[in-house]
Amino acid sequence: MNNSTYPIGNPGEKWNNNHKLQWLEAQKIKRSYNDEVLTLINELKDTLIVEQYGELNYAQNSYPLFALKTQHFDKNKHTVLITGGVHGYETSGVHGALRFAKTLATQYAEKFNLVITPCISPWGYETINRWNPEAIDPNRSFYEGSPAQESALVMNYVQSLNTDLIAHIDLHETTDSDNSEFRPALAAREGKVNTNWNIPDGFYLVADSNKPEPAFQKAIIECVEKVTHIAPSDENKQLIGVPQEQFGVINYAAKELGLCMGLSDATYVTTTEVYPDSATANPEECILAQVAAISGALDYIINK
């Protein structure tokens, strides 16, 4: 599929502001950030610190942004960042972060200071979208002077904590809609010909090619495969067009690509990729896979 088949834009031409407005007007609210996310955050106020770190004010709506922190931050403990909903449409990233916060965060608070931002892109959550209303991908926008408010606000918040991170786990999904909608839209926006990738059937990880920490990634895979299946590589020994570094793991240049997992200098970083469209998966399994990824990462650090 190439951008000539996408309903917005002209083949070979980048979108102008009118095209972006046309795209925005086609987006519809499909679920409620307030009902499905904020209510769950409010339920955690008795066990975790809930901090508002910003607000997104779009013409369609205003969205308060919240972080969850374990109580009694201790400078003698390592601090771990868990992020979800950078791509709002990736549902288990949001609800995996919230489920971990509800069920396991206080247990791990004995070893770590935990910071959880469960839904960085609430407009994307409500419209089931990869981009923000300005047709910007927040997960390519984690750099100084970011054009995405979602990315800039969470970066500023993490910096305000004034603490070094030992680890950062960023929760994502790879969905069939990547090929049916989001990659064609990206090609149209950039005036390029789209080439779809093979959607991996199962869970996989994206490590930072500058600090891959393969043993750390392997420990997460081993924990997650108790919950859901790990994606095999394709006939080219690749996942999403990238060579497989080890079973279930590929490497990306996090900082160079502006990825969320590159926002800090943490030693241990990873991006999870759950496959919710698998014939054998269900929403609960996807959430539990995210929780398993977090606990596997933390257990590795504890036992190292």
From TrEMBL:
Which Pfam family is one of this chain's hits?
Peptidase_M14
Cited Gene3D superfamilies: Zn peptidases
Which branch of life, at top level?
Answer: Bacteria
Q: Where is the Peptidase M14 domain?
A: 29-304
Q: Do you know which InterPro entries this protein is assigned to?
A: Peptidase_M14
List GO BP terms, alphabetically: proteolysis
- Active site (record annotation): E273
Task: Provide a Gene Ontology MF annotation, just one.
Answer: zinc ion binding
Q: What family classification does the UniProt entry report for this protein?
A: Belongs to the peptidase M14 family.
The protein in question is named: Peptidase M14 domain-containing protein
This protein's species is: Pseudoalteromonas haloplanktis
